[in-house]
Amino acid sequence: MNRVEGILSGIASRMAAAWFVLLATTAVALLALYDGALPALAVISAWLIVCAAAIAAIRPRLAAEEESVPDSLETVLAFDFGDLPGLLDEIDLAIYLLAPDGTVLFQNRSASDTFGKFPLGSHISARMRAPGVLDIIRDTLANGRVNQIEYSERLPSERVYLVRSAPVSDAEKPVFMLVLRDVSEARRIDRMRSDFVANASHELRTPLASLRGYIETLQGPAKHDVKAQERFLPIMLDQATRMSRLVDDLMSLSRLEAKAHLPPDQTVTLNALLGHVRDSLLPLAEDLEVSIHLFMPEEPVTVNGDKDELVEVFENLIENACKYGSEGGKVEVYLKPLSPSGAEVSVVDHGPGIPSEHVPRLTERFYRVSVADSRSKKGTGLGLAIVKHILTRHRARLSVKSEVGQGTTFTVRF
Ligand code: ADP
Fold first, then answer.
1. Closest ligand 1 atom number to CA of residue 351
2. What is the CATH number of the domain that holds 309?
3. Are residues 354 and 223 in the same domain?
4. 10 Å Cβ neighbour count for 150?
5. Are residues 166 and 144 located together in one domain of the fold?
6. How far is the CA of 243 from the centre of ligand 1 (A)?
7. Cα atoms found within 13 Å of the Cα of residue 347, Cβ hemisphere only
8. How far apart are CA 172 and CA 205, in angstroms?
């Protein structure tokens, strides 16, 4: 039905409802003619009669056409979905039920939460504009085929959906289902995994290639060259050590991932643990000419945790502070109990600091502000990723505050 016909239909139904007015107008017109009264009145009345006649002629056709529209909002009202809406509301996928003409008959709660409330009876193309999605819907409506595609939205945030269209009911009253499954998180994890494998392989390949080069030289041209052997062997040991550090860190990460869901079950006294970490790092700190100062309360501060893992956390943070903040000459570690329970440990250095754009990414695997700087300091780029994993298992938080030229503070809150 086009717009003009729609308007006419509206007028027709109103006029039909007021048929007695028309009748009265006609009577007045006839009387006016008979009396030879105002011709204008006669003309108006005649015009009304013509209109009424024309509309009366059109109306049955319009009504017939309306009845022949197969599935529109009327279907929504006529179709008995029974318990289906309640059931579909409980499903954590965005679901739309469509009539054969593409009209939306029903949307579940997840659909309205994700994509906003949508007026029932409107065509699905008012909601889904992506051509690929509309194509599969059209094909399902026309041919009853099950279709599936992946569809991504960039705004308001990047999301990826698996969209499936399928017929769901009998031939007599066909209904179609459009289901959107949000797979953004799964895609993100897939991408992270493949990036991780690529990064880990790259990190291992570099020292491996260098080792291989030295071995070939020592087997060939430098076979009897004692001086070359003396020069190359320490470098080879260095590369082998770097590889084993990397493998240790990778193993550590995978162990942590395996037990991520198990909460730690020991009681750890942080005062003693931090003292132990400081002692173990003294040789490194001396090499770097950095002094480590502990500021701790007299009374023991305890948390629920895994001792070995917490040693790893503070070794990483204090070692980083010594390595990357060595310019400042000192590293301070503050332990504070938190009321009613918990504790806070801050590791402060006075080094060059970290530019703010890097701070949110520091705990990503293999993320380094400067790869060359990290390598020269025997870094693997996995230290803070391990710290974050351990702290997540401990339900603790890591925060980083840094000012370029002033230094950096890493704070752990239990
Ligand atoms: P790495 O093995 O390279 O030290 P980490 O995951 O421990 O890896 O740290 C990631 C990066 O964060 C480091 O390469 C370094 O660029 C930066 N970083 C960490 N701690 C500090 C710090 N205290 N001061 C400045 N930069 C730091």
1. 24
2. 3.30.565.10
3. no
4. 12
5. yes
6. 18
7. 25
8. 64
Residue 106 pairs in a beta bridge with: 97
Q: Which atom of ligand 1 is nearest to the CA of 375?
A: 3
- Which of these three, 258, 276, 297, is where a domain ends? 258
Q: Describe the chain by its helix, strand, coil percentages, rounded to 5.
A: 55, 20, 25
Q: pLDDT truncated to tens, each residue of the chain (414 aa)?
A: 344 444 454 455 455 545 555 666 666 666 666 666 666 666 666 666 666 666 665 555 444 444 433 334 444 545 566 677 788 889 999 999 999 999 999 999 999 998 888 888 889 998 888 899 999 999 999 998 999 999 988 877 788 999 999 998 766 778 899 999 999 999 988 888 888 888 889 889 989 999 999 999 999 988 899 999 999 999 999 999 999 999 999 999 888 888 888 889 899 999 999 999 999 999 999 999 999 999 999 999 999 999 999 999 999 999 999 999 998 899 999 999 998 889 999 999 999 999 999 999 999 999 999 888 888 888 889 999 999 999 999 999 999 999 999 999 999 999
Q: Compute, in angstroms, the gap from residue 264 CA to the centroid of ligand 1.
A: 26
- pTM comes to 0.63
Total structural domains within the chain? 4
141 alpha carbon to ligand 1 midpoint, in Å? 56
Reading the block at residue 78, the tokens are 């006529």
Counting ligand 1 atoms within 8 A of each CB, the residue from 359, 362, 398 with the most, and so the one to mutate, is 362
Parent domain of 333: 267-413
DSSP per-residue string spanning 145-202: --EEEEEEE-SSS-EEEEEEEEE-S-SSS--EEEEEEE-HHHHHHHHHHHHHHHHHHH
How far does residue 140's CA lie from ligand 1's centre (Å)?
A: 54
Q: Which amino acid is at 381?
A: G
CA–CA gap between residue 414 and residue 406 (Å, rounded): 26
| CB of 346 closer than 6 angstroms to any ligand 1 atom | no
Residue at a domain's end among 78, 102, 135: 78
- On whether both 284 and 400 belong to a single domain, the answer is yes
Asked if residue 201 and residue 89 are part of one domain, the reply reads no
- Ligand 1 within 6 A of CB of 366: no
Which residue type, as a one-letter code, is found at position 77? L
